[in-house]
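Entry 12.
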Amino acid sequence: MQLFPPIKPFKTEMLGVSNGHQLHLEQTGNPDGVPILFLHGGPGAGISEAYRQFFDPEHYRIIGFDQRGCGKSQPFGSLEDNTSQLLVQDVLAIQNHLNIEKWILFGGSWGSTLALLVAIERPESIIGLILRGIFLARKEDYSWYLDKNGGAAQLFPEYYQAFLEPIQSKLGKQTIVDAYYDIFTSDNEIQKMAAIKAWFLWEARISKLHIQINEEQLIPDVHRAISLALLECHYIKHQCFIPENHILDNTANIKALPITIIHGRYDTVCKLESAYSLHQALDNSELSIIPEAGHSAGETATTQALCIAARDMLKFKKEQK
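Predicted 3D structure (C-alpha cells):
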C-alpha cells in the first residue's frame, strides 16, 4: 500500500493556548470523516505536507499541528512554558476546540511518546493508537542516542565524533546535553548555528538504514534544524519532564485500546527494545518489526506499514459501531 496523493488543508488557523503560545493547526480530508491527529517528532520537528498522505482523505478527518516553539507556531524556538504536560494540555485543547469526542492518535518517535502521554491521561477520548519508532523517555533511551557507549555512537563512531566537535572544550566538565544547552541559550550566534547544524546532522545521518542523498541536502530547512536542535536538547535536559519509566508504569490505563506499534529493525535513534517492551506490557497491541528499516517514516517498508495501519484502524472503527 502506497501513500495517498498530496492534498491541501480545507482549514488552517492559529489556536491560542496557555502561556501566550499560538499553535499552527490544520485540517485535511473529509470534515465528516474519522478524526485522526498526527503528532510529529522531535520535539521540534514540526509538520510537513507529506504527513497528510498516510491517510485516506475520503474517510479521515486529518488533523495536524506544530507543537510549541516549532514550525509555524509562535513564539518560534521558545523554550519557555514548553513541557510535556503543556503539550498534552495543548492536544486536549485542540480536541475541545474541534468538538471531537474521540479520535485516533498517530505519532512517530517523540510523537509516539506524546501520543502515549495523552492516551494515558485521557484513554476514554481515544479510538486507537498508531505508533512508530517508540521513544519511552527513559535514561537508557537518552543514553542509547547520546552517550559515547550508547548504541548509536557505537554504530556510527565517525558521525558521533563530528557531533561532539562543537562541545570539545566542555567535555569532562559538563554532560553532552548541558554543554549543548549552554551554547543553544547563549548570545554567540555563530557558535550557536554551528552547534545546531551538528546536532541536527547527528540525527539525520543515523535516521535511515540507507542514506542515498547528498549530505548537503540533509539540512534543507534551517528553520526546522533550529527548532529541532533547541527543543530536543531542552526536553532531554529535563528528562522530557516526566518521571523515569512513567509510560511503562501506566500502561494499565490504555489496555482497552487497539494499539499498533511499528518499529524498524535497525532503528539507531530509538532502540527496538523500547517497542518490544511496550508491546510486552500491552496485550492489546500488535508489534510489526520492519526488516531492513531504520528510524525514518520515509523508508519504503515503514511507509507501507503505516498506511496499512491507518487503513486497518478504519476497519476497527466500523466494527465498534
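Annotation: Strands lie at 11-16, 22-29, 34-39, 60-65, 103-108, 126-132, 259-264, 285-290. The CA atoms of residues 153 and 160 lie 5 Å apart.
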